[in-house]
Amino acid sequence: MFALLVCPLAARALDLDLKLEPGAALSMNGQQSNRFDLGGAATLKGLVGFEGGYVNLAAGLTFLGLPAQTGYPSSSAGTAWAPSFGLRLQLPRESDAMRLSRPHARESFYGARPWIDADVLYVNTGGLGRVGFATAAGLSFPMGESRSFWLGPFVRYFQIFQGNPAGYDNRNANTIILGLSLETGTRLVRPPAEPEEKDPAPVVMAVAARPDRDGDGLADDVDACPDMYGPASNAGCPVYEKIVVKADVLELKEKIQFSWNQAVIEPVSYPALDEVSKALQDNKGFRVAIEGHASSEGADDHNQSLSTRRAEAVLDYVADHGVARDRLVSKGFSSSRPIESNATAVGREANRRVEFVVHFIVLKEGSLQ
After folding, report:
1. What global pTM score does this model have?
2. Lowest mean pLDDT among 34-38, 84-88, 133-137, 186-190
3. CB 61 within 8 A of CB 132
């Protein structure tokens, strides 16, 4: 309930994580440190929280092993198993909106994410069960572009409350654990709610003159390029060598080629993009949304990042060749909009593409925009 109150209720996604914490363990109690040598510990935790939230609920299992020093009989006195339940405070895992607003290349401290946690434990040592407490602080660093794994150091304080059981040492057991944490997880996205259906607004029909600014015989309201002379067979748009200008899209006759797994345009695609730039200069009323798409291979986070950066690279190229940036927008769609089946190599190749979706600016007659 506490996590639900402090996490954003409007979040559309739930983060599920699995965390492994191996480390070295050392007793901090004087009497115990005289009996036990340096040992080891490991904790396995499951965590759940909302996208964009600072609090995660955690449930885990900890193993603690402290070997007896020479002269003491070897027994289970230094071995403990402890299921736990608690909370973790952290910087939120990045969402798609966060990644687009601040690309990884501009992250400070290599994208490090600090965290602290606290857990209540029930500790079992041999046949004895006791209550315990643990708290830790750590720093996690992302591994790779997809942010699928996080690795970093941590320090954990582990205490067992002994009580006064007959025949047992009644001093509290205090242990410090130093190690590395490895975390991975997934995000479950809730689909958006369906919009309510509303009665359609009445359509007002108006009769007006049908001007033809470019004089190509097609009225401006049916001319896909009302400011450029073009044949009716091409919807009133000029005919180009490497692209086809349609009413709602600039269709390339060849694919834009990129370096493998990078957002670097290959020189072989420069002529096609030069012609796209020329077409946009010829048609001042066009605004273009440049869309990057990927196949289903690889992690979704990586595909989203790569498709976004490739669309941005195409936008930069077109803008550098004479097209105003306020007429351009770019967006990556990862593998969410395939045009072929991803089950075949041919289909996956077709799905890795860049598209130019056309929107219109209505110009006044005689405008030179």
Report:
1. 0.46
2. 34-38
3. no
Closest CA to 48 of 40, 56, 59, 60: 56
- pLDDT, the chain, mean: 77
Share of residues in the chain with pLDDT > 70 (%): 75
Over residues 36-52, the mean pLDDT reads 86
Q: Which percentage of the chain shows pLDDT scores above 90?
A: 19
Rounded to whole angstroms, how far apart are CA atoms 39 and 16?
31
Please return the burial class of 369, using the count of CB atoms within 10 Å of its CB with bins 0-12, 13-18 and 19+. exposed
Taking alpha carbons only, the member of 235, 258, 240 closest to residue 312 is 258
Contact criterion met (CB below 8 Å) for 332 and 315? no
- The DSSP output letter for 258 is B
- Given a contact cutoff of 8 angstroms between Cβ atoms, the answer to whether 121 and 71 are in contact is no
pLDDT digits (tens, 9 = 90+) for 288-306: 888 888 877 778 888 888 8
> What is the Cα–Cα distance from 222 to 252, expressed in whole angstroms?
22
Q: Are 60 and 17 in contact (CB under 8 A)?
A: no
What CA–CA distance (Å, rounded) separates 202 from 45?
A: 58
Of residues 226, 249, 240, 348, the one with CA closest to residue 295: 348
25/32 Cα distance (integer angstroms):
12
Q: Is 75 helix (H, G, I), strand (E, B) or coil?
A: coil
| CB-based contact 273:321 (threshold 8 Å) | yes
| 211: nearest Cα among 361, 358, 364, 360 | 364
Helix (H) or strand (E) holding 282: helix 270-282
Exposure string for 60-75, b = 16+ CB within 10 A, e = fewer:
bebebebeeeeeeeee
